[in-house]
Amino acid sequence: MEDISIEDKVKIASGFLLASPPGEVNDVFNDVRTLVDDDKALESGILTTLEEYNTEQLITVIPPGLDYEVIVSKHGKVDLDRYLDPRSKKSFQFDHIRLVATELKDHTEDLPIEDFRAAVETEAHKYVNDHYPNGVCSVYGLDENNIAIAIVDNKYNPNNYWNGRWLATWVYNRETGALKGATKVHVHYYEDGNVQLNSDKKSDSTVTFKEDVTVTAKAIVKEITTFDKRYHTAVNNSYEELAENAFKGLRRALPLTRNKLDWNKIMNYKIGNELSQK
């Protein structure tokens, strides 16, 4: 690394940070900090990278004065380092390096299509609270025709060497009825190894806008619910296929006994008995 310039080191560090698994960006930052060995250059050079990572990964934070988590999203950016919580109609300053929210204050600007946005927010929160154990949701009014729905659920278990995140962003245009979504799943398991699941799926559907905003809001959330169920089922099926076929294909054709292993009688083997006792 001695022959690499500080600028190139920062670029390499930025790439590592953007690829950070859920809940591990601080660990990655501490590692690249050692490699770069120049805190001033690192902090100034990766600030944009951290902002990109945090907003794309829908990082959550509890601003002072609020008692619930808020999503840090590009759809909620109102100033250089300030983000909107549309639920409370307040904005807060966010430190992308330290992941801390400060200076909560009223957002005085008029919010576009607020009645419609609030109706979607109500239905979206019901859905997230019912289906996501640690889910957080924010609904943003983008302009006179568009709203954005951000959903994220994080599950961190570093003591058992795994972390995971489900995140989704949906944009609805009430003029055309177009509902476009992008959902991503990222899981990292790293006990005695390094295994990651990276999956993403896009959706493109239509929901007719009704004058009764509650009716439209329910229809939008119903479409999201249907997509999530299909995607969840597809991921589960992929795991079953992986366990039943791919993993078996990676095993030895013949064990050391030179006899084929009968998978249907695994419990009759000594190793099977040992595994069942653990």
UniProtKB/TrEMBL annotation:
Annotated keywords: Actin capping, Actin-binding
Keyword Membrane attached: no
Keyword ATP-binding: no
GO biological process: actin cytoskeleton organization; barbed-end actin filament capping
Classification via PANTHER family: F-ACTIN-CAPPING PROTEIN SUBUNIT ALPHA
Family: Belongs to the F-actin-capping protein alpha subunit family.
Identification of the protein by name: F-actin-capping protein subunit alpha
Lineage: Eukaryota, Fungi, Fungi incertae sedis, Mucoromycota, Mucoromycotina
